[in-house]
Amino acid sequence: MSAYHIIGDQDTVLGYRFAGVTGTVVSNPEQARKAFAEATRETRGGILLITEAVEDMLEEQVAEYRLKARPPYLTVVEDIWGKRGKRRSLQDLIYEAVGIRIVEEK
Q: CA 71, CA 54: separation in Å to the nearest integer?
């Protein structure tokens, strides 16, 4: 795992990839469990980002892992839907991840 790795839906992982963050796309609890186990098996350091939806799928595993307090350190981020369920654009995700605004030419 690189310094940062994200587990989440396809659009959110793609947005973070533009910032150079490796990622694993998951769409169900089984995929999420497998990706989480693989990402937390390595203890070289780094930060593991998971979306709020993945956290909801893995409540018990996430709670147990947080108690260990060892690398990779866990952070929960909003997915492309945001906290209010309103879908954010890919441009907004890129801006949030790397601070670069991609402007569409008209």
A: 19
* Residue 78, domain extent: 4-98
Report DSSP state, residue 31: H
Strands 4-8 and 73-77: unpaired
**CATH code for the domain in which residue 33 is found:** 3.40.50.10580
Residue 54 belongs to some domain of the structure: yes
Tokens 């989480």 -> residue: 36
pLDDT at position 87, please? 65
Q: What is the mean pLDDT of the chain?
A: 84
Q: pLDDT tens digits, residue range 45-86?
A: 789 999 999 999 999 999 999 998 788 999 898 876 666 566
Name residues whose C-beta falls within 8 Å of residue 56's C-beta, 6 or more positions apart in sequence. none
In a domain, 105, yes or no: no
